[in-house]
Amino acid sequence: MTRTRGRRTLEGIPTLEVAGNRFFNIDCVAGARALLADDSIDLIVTDPPYGIAGDTLHQHYNRNEDFVVGGYVDVEPGQYQSFTRDWVAEAHRVLRPGGSIFIVSGYTRLYEVLHALRTTPLVEVNHLIWRYSFGVYTSRKFVSSHYHILYYAKPGGRRTFNLESRFGRDEKAHHGGSANYLDREDVWSLPREYKPRREKNKNELPTELLVKILQYASDPDDLVCDFFLGGFSTARVAIGLGRRATGFEVAVPTFQRRGAALRSVTPDGLLATLHPPTIGVARNRSKRWDAAQLAALHDRYGSLREHQLTKSAAVARLGEEFGRGTFAILRALKRIDAHASARRPRTPKRR
Ligand SMILES: C[S@@+](CC[C@H](N)C(=O)[O-])C[C@H]1O[C@@H](n2cnc3c(N)ncnc32)[C@H](O)[C@@H]1O
């Protein structure tokens, strides 16, 4: 074993390097102990094996096994607790103060994962529910259609949470509610990806889910680690979003086949697919309007409408100019109207 700048390297560990990012074919606990320095990772996103007896996993997660890479390593149910405690302790050690971890967990092993988290100083940020469509069909009980995502952080530093990375605070959803608020509710409805006739790991996380986590919880160039790489989905999204990536996978066929597929990833390639948020922080939010501002708003609205802007385009422009949200502008215009009509002389009724 040799040491390089606080991080050690283990000779003989099969390593894959893609666009300057390194991944290791080794058990994650041994790999983290050997290769990751304390406080070195900005974000961990990971989906550990579910401890539900490997051979039956396909019945839960994939409809057709033909394109699933074999070799998935599961954990014996009786060992799940100690296995989880070991890797969660390593995750805590390598996270930087303020760094975050998102752990995807089915309900069967949720107890062990929560228990392990609570043996560390990691603090809960959110307990998210990922609701997916097409759960496994059952006829004598309810259909299971959710996973848990445990979002925790290491105390002692500033946690990255990019509030307006996907929707500006004033952006509206189709039906008029706040898109930013709705996107940040703790139940996420996102479909799973079935990838028919494409090679895959047993249970690959959807790109959309990972993009959402990484947009909120990491910045460009941050180092994102996945302790259980599987199909390298976290790594693929991290590199695609201009983050750095690393991680571990113990299964040889999975590491070799799915790792080779990672070579096709384009660094920053996902950036062009993102919805650009309208960062509309209303700088005068909650401040009272004075008479001069109301008069200016009235004049400006009249002038924009004279220049053929539609009402909603004019209101959006006024929101930017006056540092207010859409509803605040609409309410103020209504107030001006009401005031003007109250002052208008009444036409006497004809007798
Ligand atoms: C649920 S899958 C991960 C799926 C992955 N998130 C994806 O989107 O493809 C869990 C993976 O962890 C691997 N694994 C099991 N035990 C491991 C260990 N001790 N260290 C590293 N990887 C392990 C399994 O072989 C499997 O590929």
What does this 3D model show about the protein?
This protein is α/β, with parallel strands linked by helices and 351 residues long. The chain has two domains: 2-273, 3-Layer(aba) Sandwich (Rossmann fold), CATH 3.40.50.150; 291-343. Helices cover 34% and strands 17% of the residues. Strands 3-4-11-10-5-6-8-7-9 form a nine-stranded mixed β-sheet, sandwiched between helices. The chain has a two-stranded antiparallel sheet with strand order 1-2. Strand 1 and strand 2 form a beta hairpin. Helix 6 crosses helix 7, helix 9 (291-306) packs across helix 11 and helix 10 (311-322) crosses helix 11. The structure holds S-adenosylmethionine. S-adenosylmethionine (SAM) binds next to loops.
Concise description?
This protein is α/β, with parallel strands linked by helices and 351 residues long.
Widest sheet, order of strands: 3-4-11-10-5-6-8-7-9
Query: What distance lies between the first and last C-alpha atoms, to the nearest angstrom?
Result: 105 Å
- The biggest beta sheet, please? 9 strands, mixed
Proportion of beta-strand residues: 15-25%
CATH fold call of the largest domain: Rossmann fold
- What would you say the CATH architecture of the largest domain is? 3-Layer(aba) Sandwich
Helix content: 25-40%
Q: Class of the largest domain, according to the CATH hierarchy? A: Alpha Beta
- Name the average pLDDT: 87
The named CATH superfamily of the largest domain: Vaccinia Virus protein VP39
Low-confidence stretches: 1-7, 57-62
Could you state the order of secondary-structure elements as H and E? EEEEHEHHEHEEHEHEHEHHHH
